[in-house]
Amino acid sequence: MSEFDIIIIGGGSAGSAAAGRLAESGKFTVCLIEAGGTNDYARIKTPGFMPFIPDKSNYRFETVPQKGLNGRTGYQPRGRGLGGSSAINAMVYIRGHKWDYDNWAALGCTGWGYDDVLPYFKRSEGNERGGDDFHGGEGPLNVMDQRWPNEGSLAFVDAAAELQLPRNTDFNGAQQDGFGLYQVTQKAGERWSAARAYVEPQRAAGKLEVLTGALTEKILIEEGRASGVIIRQGNKRQTIRARGAVILSAGAFNSPQILMLSGIGPAGHLQSLGIDPLLDKAAVGDDLQDHIDYVTSFETRSRAFFGDSLPGTWRMVKAIIEHARKRTGIMTTCFAEAGGFWRTDPALPAPDIQYHFVPAMLEDHGREKVKGHGYSIHACVLRPYSRGSVKLASADAAAAPLIDPAFLTDDRDMETLKAGVRMLHRITKAPSLSAYAGADRHPIDLNDDAALEQQIRNRADTVYHPVGTCRMGPDASDVVDPQLRLRGVKGLYVADASIMPRLISGNTNAPSMMIGERAADFVCADLGS
């Protein structure tokens, strides 16, 4: 087919949810277009293979040099293929804080308060603990407790408790503050991506057309309406028409890129690359927000942690065999097994620091090989003030965009992160964790404020949660309205993390699926079904 009622561009977390729900309704012909492949292989499905995700499933973007990071270039991994970043991430199921969504509503995003979005989180979620006031028990996204957490992850939670930091067994329930083990998006010992939750069932039922290896070059806009897309598969270019709607769900980097390639964006920038502006929209690609993150590793003699040694390698070989046979054991790890949410100031409306504990030494996003055994702890700023941008590097759709998160350009983010790093080190000195005698691979005098700041600028980077580049809002200057309709073009919607007006206090995978769920309802309503 070359014509459908609805076309979704991007098979990531939000796009999978939107496509699955629209196809499930049986009211429309639906086509999902994905630039990557199917991601249907063991290195994706096996959680413990996360550090070995192949290049074909990861865009591996880089930022422009970051002034706030002493001129360093940051790393920006993004999922490529069905499931998007839910196919390569740490599988942590976090929604954000109630205050985040109520704040969206206060900013003019009517219908996006916590009470509005909670039903969609519950509809999406199939939590193995069962449903209750905060959780769904029967949704397509399987959520479960970790069954084989590392002893060091449990020690991290105990260490926090020894500092009178509260324990929390449900970060998505009544209270976010506290420390505990994260729930994960897994099922029967395998990664449960958005594609496995939403796309595969509808594709198998013949309700959803899925095109993989299909690069979207531009959205067709005729007489003020989105009428289709131009895609390229290999050397073949074709046009696919949309009778009702086009939903752009390519993520915080690729959604603004595709809009700009289609003539929607800052007119001067588009003209400089030879693109004819159809709609001058300065906010496209603007307002990029991301969680700036500091991570440090601690080397130990304990082989309880993952590590590069002969005994460690033999342990992993046995674990791989166990997982292949039974889908059990330590190869079900999400690596970011434990963590917590903490307020640098008790007067804040929500936690402003999140921690991730990894029972392995992590250097340069895992790209640097480290000998020995140990653990790592991340501390990230949950609601940064720094704002960056995404721009085009060229008019070629296959070229990576220019990504500038502008990390730590607002001094308030640095002050928050310094407080978070100091608390990180306090936790390592509490009895349960100090028992492992971890030696910091990047020691620092925490009383030397200037030295700590330099350490952060030399080591901090993303924790993979970019948002905001097609922001939602009540004004004509905003990219989309609260029903996710692109302002100025009929029949065109944006549904992914790029529409978030403010970054939420936590991991962005589950909220992206919630956005996709809502987009499906908005489109159904607008098309009269």
What's the SSE blueprint?
Blueprint: E1 3-9, H1 13-24, E2 30-33, H2 42-45, E3 61-66, E4 72-76, H3 98-106, H4 114-124, E5 125-127, E6 141-143, H5 151-162, E7 178-181, E8 186-187, E9 190-191, H6 194-204, E10 209-211, E11 215-222, E12 225-233, E13 236-248, H7 251-261, E14 264-265, H8 267-272, E15 279-280, E16 286-288, E17 292-300, E18 307-308, H9 310-326, E19 338-342, E20 353-358, E21 372-381, E22 388-391, E23 402-404, H10 411-428, H11 431-434, E24 439-440, H12 449-459, E25 461-462, E26 492-494, H13 509-526
Parallel strand pairs: 1-2, 1-13, 2-10, 5-6, 13-26, 14-15
Antiparallel strand pairs: 3-4, 7-19, 8-9, 11-12, 12-13, 16-22, 17-21, 17-24, 17-25, 18-21, 19-20, 20-21, 22-23
Structure characterization notes:
With 529 residues, the protein is an alpha+beta fold. It is built from 13 helices and 26 strands. The chain has two domains: 1-142 and 187-284 and 466-529, 3-Layer(bba) Sandwich (FAD/NAD(P)-binding domain); 147-181 and 292-381 and 409-459, Cholesterol Oxidase, domain 2 (2-Layer Sandwich), CATH 3.30.410.40. It has helices spanning 13-24, 42-45, 98-106, 114-124, 151-162, 194-204, 251-261, 267-272, 310-326, 411-428, 431-434, 449-459, 509-526; strands at 3-9, 30-33, 61-66, 72-76, 125-127, 141-143, 178-181, 186-187, 190-191, 209-211, 215-222, 225-233, 236-248, 264-265, 279-280, 286-288, 292-300, 307-308, 338-342, 353-358, 372-381, 388-391, 402-404, 439-440, 461-462, 492-494. Strands 7, 17, 18, 19, 20, 21, 24 and 25 form an eight-stranded antiparallel β-sheet that branches. Strands 1, 2, 10, 11, 12, 13 and 26 form a seven-stranded mixed β-sheet that branches. It has a three-stranded antiparallel β-sheet with strand order 16-22-23. Helix 8 links the parallel strand 14 and strand 15. Helix 1 (13-24) packs parallel to helix 6 (194-204). The chain is globular and about 70 Å long. The model has no long low-confidence stretch (mean pLDDT 97).
